[in-house]
């Protein structure tokens, strides 16, 4: 029987396919815009400059200082460039960091956004903006944060290094895993979550064999869209709380932290929601936690938090932060069980 649910579709335009970056100009025009400011990290500046050249008169230039966790001082610098150039939209070319800068500009200015993702983080389809100021990360939600157009062009992910492809894919899979037991899940979010997990189950091992496998690249980016969409649609729980704690307070790298924690948090929650997580066991084998652990080990993902520079002593403080103001979670949490979960993830022990 289908239980009662609330469903809200996204207003964003999704454009998917190899070579679709070439349609960026026509999407800028469809938005009624003529002066796009292109955004990138320093690392992807050359790609942004090249796109700017292709856009010709539709581009007012490139701002290439996007950085992890959207520092407010960089956004303010970008806002000055928006003013001086008279930009009427932004085009973010890159991963979650660049998308974050585009969202931060849209939040402050109301400018429409075109996002061209080059990782699997999924930020481009959520109305969530995380930004940092004075060492503190805050999160805002708002309709004007959600990008208007997302162009998924798998060709742009062909150069995403294999290690980042793997951790970024597991980061996306974590959105889908938590969506399966979200309190506000609905039949469509669960379908998308499962389809996203299946896309990564197919594509990540294929990318290990050949990182330039075009079919696998398209599959992975399709999975990223699905997993990002459910991240934006339903609430996240313990897994995301722990990863935000580790990233926010201990500066552990975003995608790697998600990759390591995923089998442990899913293993922990299986006791409370075995039925909701059974599809993960069906896909990955054995139990949901061990299935994901073995899958990530087989594709060469990092396995232990200690390898990210976290010390054993940090685990006590991480436990305290993770259990204060907890997100809703299907299994009740307490200090002892979270400390144990973190210890196992720190050591890289195979979960139950
Ligand atoms: P990232 O955007 O920080 O990228 C990491 C590095 O890889 C950068 O130097 C980038 O330029 C480079 N890179 C990206 N794509 C590449 C490619 N195809 N080839 C070569 N190099 C490439 O990493 P990320 O994991 O995509 O994003 C992490 C950030 O996104 C975090 O700040 C996180 O909080 C945020 N995020 C936000 C949401 C949300 O909904 N608000 C969701 C997911 C992630």
Write up this protein.
Strands 1-8-5-4-2-3 form a six-stranded parallel β-sheet, with helices on both faces. A two-stranded antiparallel sheet has the order 6-7. A hairpin with a 2-residue loop joins strand 6 (128-133) and strand 7 (136-141). It is α/β, with parallel strands linked by helices. The protein is globular, with a radius of gyration of 20 Å. It has 13 helices and eight strands. It has two domains: 13-157, Rossmann fold; 162-347, Dehydroquinate synthase-like, alpha domain (Up-down Bundle). Helix 8 packs antiparallel against helix 9 and helix 12 packs across helix 13. The model has no long low-confidence stretch (mean pLDDT 96). The chain binds nicotinamide-adenine-dinucleotide. Nicotinamide-adenine-dinucleotide binds at residues 41, 43-44, 68-69, 94-98, 100, 118-119, 121-123, 126, 128-130, 156-157, 159-160, 168, 231, 254-255.
Quick gist of this model?
With 352 residues, the chain is of the alpha/beta class. The chain has helices at residues 24-30, 45-55, 72-85, 96-109, 162-180, 187-209, 214-233, 238-250, 254-270, 274-284, 288-298, 314-323, 335-347; strands spanning 13-16, 36-39, 59-63, 89-94, 113-117, 128-133, 136-141, 149-152.
